[in-house]
Amino acid sequence: MNLAVYACDPVLSRGRRVAQAPAPTRTEYQRDRDRIVHCSAFRRLVYKTQVFLNHEGDLFRTRLTHSLEVAQLGRSVARSLRLNEDLVEAIALAHDLGHTPFGHAGQDALDECMAQHGGFEHNLQSLRVVDQLEQRYPQFDGLNLSFETREGILKHCARASAERFEREEPGGVGRRFLERWQPSLEAQLCNLADEIAYNAHDIDDGVRSGLVTLDQLQEVPLFNEFRLQVLSEYPQLQDAMQGRRLLYESIRRMLSAQVYDLIAATQRAIDADPPDSLDAVRRRGPLVQFGEAMRAQSRTLKIFLLGNLYRHPTVMRTTGLAKQVVRELFAAYLSCPREMPGSYMKRSAYPGAISERAIERTVADYIAGMTDRFAAREHERLTGARLLP
Ligand code: MG
C-alpha cells in the first residue's frame, strides 16, 4: 500500500501495552482487526439495537451491520486519501463494541444507574471491552490492541476520565484530551464514516418501518436533491410500487455525494498545508471534514431524523420499556450479585469507578455486554415481568 507520509504506518506503531512479537504474515493493524472480529463482544453486536429494537424486524440495521457499513465507507475514503485502510477497518469494527442493549435508551438508563459511580459512556466502554473485559488470552486481559486502534476507539473523553487514563497509562490514550491534540486521520475518518453510515441507513430503516415516509423526506434538501435527480432520469419510479427502488437509488447517490465531498474537502485541507508526519497531524485542527455546504446539509438531515424518527412516539414507547428493563436489571443484580455469572464477580478494577472494586461497575459491565434479547429474558427471569417480546 502506498501510504501518505501523514498516514499511520504499522511499522511505526506506538505498540501494544503488553509487547508481543510481530505476526509473520500480518501487519499490526490487520492483527488488531482480526482480534476484534474474533472477540465475543463483536459477535454480540448482531443482536444489539441500532435504532429499532432487535426483535422488531430482521431487516433493520443492527450494531453489527452498522459497524460493517462504517468499515466499508471508511476503507473506501481511506484508500482515496492514501490513509491506512486496515487501521480504519479495525477502528470501525470496534467503535460500537461498548454499546449496551437497546441502543441509546440502554446507554442512558445505565448512565443514570451509574450516576454516583462514575457514570456510563458507551465510547469509554468500547475501549474497556478491548482493554479489559474480553478474556481470551493467557498473558493479558482484553485484546492488547495497538495504540493507534485504541486511540481511534476512544472518540471522546471527559477531562476527569482523561486524567484517570493518564494516571494509569502516562502518555497514553488520555493524553490528547488533556493537550487538545487530534487523533490520527484514520480515527478522524471513522467518526465521519459513522455519521455518513447512520444518516443513510436510518433513512432506509425509517421508511422500512413506516415511521418516516418518502413524502416527508422531501423536506430534507440533501435527500430531495437526489430523489428529484433520480426521478428525472427514471420517471417510471414515480409509480408507488417502485418506491423502494427510488429510495435506494436516492440513498445510494446521497451516500456517494457525501463520500466524494468528504474526500475532496479533506484533500483540500491537507493540500493547503500538508502535514509531514503523523505527529504534525496530531497538532493540527481536525483535517478530515465535509465541505461547508455538505456539513450544513448533513446537519439538517440529522435534525430531521431526530425529530421524525429517533423521537417518534412509537420509538419512544419501546425506549421507555427498554430503560425500565435496564434499570430493573441493575437493581436486581445489585441486590443479588450472585445472579451474575461467577466470572463477572472477579473482574478487574475499573479506573473510572469511585471505588476500585465497585460492584456497580461490575453490574454495568455485565448489563452492557448483553444482547437485547438476553437482557429481556434475564429481566423476565429476575422480575417475572415480560416487558419486551
Ligand atoms: Mg456507530
Quote the CATH topology of the largest domain: Hypothetical protein af1432
Please count the helical segments: 18
**Name of the top-level CATH class of the largest domain:** Mainly Alpha
H and E order: HHHHHHHHHHHHHHHHHH
Instruction: Tell me which ligands are bound.
Output: magnesium ion
- Rough outline: globular
Helix content: 55-70%
Instruction: Provide the low-confidence segments as ranges.
Output: 348-356
* Count of folded domains: 2
The largest pleated sheet is described as: none
* Computed CA radius of gyration, to the nearest angstrom: 22 Å
CATH second-level architecture of the largest domain: Orthogonal Bundle
Q: What average pLDDT do the residues reach?
A: 92
Name the beta content range: under 5%
C-alpha end-to-end distance: 48 Å
Instruction: Tell me the name of the CATH homologous superfamily of the largest domain.
Output: Hypothetical protein af1432
